[in-house]
Here is the input.
Amino acid sequence: MYLVTGATGGLGRRIVQVLREQGSSVRAFVRLTSKYSSLEQRGAEVFIGDLQQERDLQKACQGVDYIISAHGSNEVSGSAQALDYRANIELIDQAKANGVKHFVFISVLGADRNYEDAPVFKAKRAVERYLENSGVPYTILRPSGFASNLLPLAERFQQTGIYVLIGDPLSRSSIVSTDDLARIAAASPTTEGARNQVFAVGGPEVLERGEIPKIFGRIFKKEPILLNPPLLAVDGIRSLVGVFNPGAKAALGTFRTLLAHEFYTTPAEVERLESVYGFKLESLESFVRRYMGL
Ligand SMILES: NC(=O)c1ccc[n+]([C@@H]2O[C@H](COP(=O)([O-])OP(=O)(O)OC[C@H]3O[C@@H](n4cnc5c(N)ncnc54)[C@H](OP(=O)(O)O)[C@@H]3O)[C@@H](O)[C@H]2O)c1
Here is the structure.
């Protein structure tokens, strides 16, 4: 039995799908308020709970062989301390107590760079360390930005031709196909070369962020209209938000870190992934074309 947390999220949903397609039993950890009916339709066992409640985590881990932690905080859902740190520490403790055979942790590319003002990065790094020292067999995946995040932007681009790019268009990233990442996460517990390993997970190409609207332009046969506010705009919004809501200001620190730095994988890292997991990674263009039916 696989326990998947964040099962209604962009990544978690796909992990459940991959596991169910290969016939594995899955317990999907969801909130009562989440949209989880499609997970039930796929044949997953739905466990309703709150990751901030230790008792729910304890119950969810009973009888489980593998845990895939794919949940995360955002500006709306809650704090990095409670979700990205505390809930994962409790999951690892429960994995140990229940003799779980493998724990897959979705971290973030750059977790090891000690960014000061990014609570999610700090929490992920602390969890990585805890997991590495726990004695529970593990795989740590450090993904770059997900291609599925760009689908709403692609839809808007298709209608308007407008693309909003905050910050430096020359800054590089290697957007990963969320479907590839789900395959990698689902395969990790049973892939020999993934045992007790840390992988940077990016797409097969390093893109300057300014190339993304050009890719959209190619796909939708439209000349991009680029709106390019500076990073200072985010700083202004952060200061304003901070007056009313210090928690949201802290969460925006992670968002700013993502915009201010480069997150890409090297060709050697891509080669290592493809060789361990045995398939070729998909480009951003192919991902968007597939989802947009083009
Ligand atoms: N998105 C990216 O580009 C990116 C890049 C690198 C790493 N990551 C990491 O990858 C992981 C997955 O990201 P994602 O974009 O798929 O996340 P997401 O779409 O924001 O999903 C977050 C999931 O966590 C669940 N969740 C939040 N609070 C919860 C609570 N108190 N109790 C139970 N469930 C709760 C959400 O449930 P609801 O449906 O109820 O809200 C949702 O299923 C995260 O760890 C994230 O940090 C993401």
Q: What stands out?
A: The domain at 2-145+177-202+264-282 is CATH 3.40.50.720 (Rossmann fold). Residues 6-12, 31, 33-34, 50-52, 70-72, 74, 77-78, 83, 106, 108, 120, 143, 145-146, 149 surround NAP (CB under 6 Å). The CA atoms of residues 21 and 125 lie 32 Å apart. The radius of gyration is 19 Å.
